[in-house]
Every structure is written in structure tokens, then in C-alpha cells.
Amino acid sequence: MTAILPPIPYWIFAVIEPTSTAAGFFTALLGPESFVADQVAHAPIHPLNQNEHMLALQLGNVFLLMAFMGIGILYYTTEPKVVRNYIIVLWLGDIGHVAVTYYILGYENFMDVGNWNALAWGNIGFTTFLFISRSAYLLGLLGEDRIPSAAQRNGKKKL
What's the maximum distance between 2 C-alpha atoms anywhere in the chain? Predict the structure, then answer.
């Protein structure tokens, strides 16, 4: 378990989110053509040019980096300010992520939930869920952070 997070935020931010971002990496790596096409629902799959292929794999790499950062920060820091600031940065990123998706899809496609594909559910639905969860955590609605023992803060295991 993480050093700081209470149980519900632990499951959301330290288990589900890194797993889903790692899945995004593998999706981009193993199927870059469909990964690119599925960014906008009903776009046709086509052979990628070098730029599109590079962007798909680099975005996948960012997903993997986010998974590693989440695990590294949430499992190993004993500083509540580090965890809180990490969650704030991701909260801001959620806003940008949904805003860019809205900008590209437009109002009609953004609001047409019945026609969302898996990536739209990830880009809009899951990101909105994370935003709400981060908001609730930052407001203290999901429990209080645990205070690490002096032994944990010094990197020593408690006997």
C-alpha cells in the first residue's frame, strides 16, 4: 500500500490509474493504426505515415511514463505535500485532456455518449471520473491521508 493515501484514493490513483495508463501504452504499441483511428470515433483505420506512427508510439510512451511516475510517487514518498501536488498536477491535466478532446470532437460528438468508442470513454468518461475523484480527494472527502511513522520517513521498516 502507499505510504500516504487512504484506501479509496489508493485503489483509484495507485492501482486502477497506473494499470489503465500502462494499458494505453500497450494499445499504442501493439495496434498503432487502430489507436490513431480510434482517437475520433468512426474514423477509418489507415496505414500510418511516419509522423502518425511516431506520435502514436510517443503518446504510448507517455502513458507508460505516467504509470511509472504514479507508482514511484504514490508508493515511495512519505511526504504528504509531494502526493498532494502530484494529484493537483494530474487534476489540471484532466482539465486539459477533456478540453482538447472536446475541441477536436466538437459539441455534437462530445455529447453523443451513445456513439462513444472505447477511447472516447477513456478520454472523456474515465478522465472525468479521475477528475471528480481527485477533486474529492483534494477536498478531503475520501478520507484523511495517513501519517507515515518516523521509521518510514527515514526509509527504515517498522519492526
Answer: 59
Share above pLDDT 70 across residues of the chain, in percent, rounded to a whole number = 92
Question: Are 84 and 5 a contacting pair, CB within 8 Å?
Answer: no
Please say if the pLDDT value at position 155 is more than 90.
Answer: no
**Of residues 127, 124, 113, 123, the one with CA closest to residue 12:** 127
List the alpha helices (DSSP H) in the chain. 7-9, 17-30, 32-37, 50-76, 80-111, 118-120, 127-138, 150-153
How confident is the model over 71-105, as pLDDT tens digits? Answer: 999 999 989 999 999 999 999 999 999 999 999 99
Return d(Cα 61, Cα 79) in angstroms, integer.
27
For residues 87 and 138, the answer to whether their CB atoms sit within 8 Å is yes
**Separation CA 86–CA 132 (nearest Å):** 15
- Residue 116 C-alpha cell reads as 462513444
Taking the model in full, what pTM does it have? 0.90
